[in-house]
Automatic annotation (TrEMBL):
<dbReference type="InterPro" id="IPR050312">
    <property type="entry name" value="IolE/XylAMocC-like"/>
</dbReference>
<protein>
    <submittedName>
        <fullName>Sugar phosphate isomerase/epimerase</fullName>
    </submittedName>
</protein>
<feature type="domain" description="Xylose isomerase-like TIM barrel">
    <location>
        <begin position="26"/>
        <end position="242"/>
    </location>
</feature>
<keyword id="KW-0413">Isomerase</keyword>
<dbReference type="InterPro" id="IPR036237">
    <property type="entry name" value="Xyl_isomerase-like_sf"/>
</dbReference>
<dbReference type="GO" id="GO:0016853">
    <property type="term" value="F:isomerase activity"/>
</dbReference>
<dbReference type="Pfam" id="PF01261">
    <property type="entry name" value="AP_endonuc_2"/>
</dbReference>
<dbReference type="InterPro" id="IPR013022">
    <property type="entry name" value="Xyl_isomerase-like_TIM-brl"/>
</dbReference>
Amino acid sequence: MENAKIALNMSMVKFIMWEKGPDYTFERVKKAGVSYFELSQVDMTDDFIKAAIEASEKHGVKIIASSVNFEPLFGGKGKGLDLVADLDRLIEVNHKLGVEYVRDSLMPRSCVHNEEGFHKAAEALNHYGKILKDAGIHLYYHNHHFEFEKFNGKTGFEILFEETDPEYVGFEPDVHWIQRAGEDPVKWIEKLSGREDLVHLKDYRIMLPAIDTLSADLFHHEACIQFAEIGEGNLDMKTIIEKSLAGGAKYLPVEQDDCYGRDPFECLANSVENIKKMGFGNLL
């Protein structure tokens, strides 16, 4: 899609945002070569919103999406706003930020080992998606690998895809987690065409632990799987980006859940350089 843009998801720099705030964070994001930003895992206080708007204008980093909690997977109330309890506040905050997309970024707790939970979640997403659309905001669902548990031959993610209304609910496929679930990221991007304004770019790297720690337990754990900078892992990122653009993606947020001791802004700059080498410098 013409005019699509590379972005950054905040989870990659969340500790820096929490400690140093939007001004420092957005300055570093811009220096790394990215001008679009997804808010995630942050308390949406009035002070934070004011600081984020000021930093956005100062550094030329546009906020394009925020996150919302819906039946939090790990229980309790996570950072940020709740889709049900804070609906009015959610709309107010995102209007202030000028944000078009709100993302549910974790599977609802009620879906754990529960097919009926996915059917009910799809119904709820349709309900709240309509309310948000009427307010000028698009509701999107971001996957991990949890959603790919099978129930009678069909995964939970397939249930969400089939039972949510494209008019009210979009999807933000995370290609690393789709790969980790044993599914094909490219095929899912093609399947979600028209419903994926947002696509998370995250590479998938194999890295064995130190040799003196190796044991046969390695076959039973994911210890050798890492989150990688774009172009530094095993995913066909060039094809993934091409298919995402063909499917209507407007923003391609880079995300790396763990940088393994490296400065996350250096990792981001590494991803940016590799994206340029792939021929997508026009997306920056």
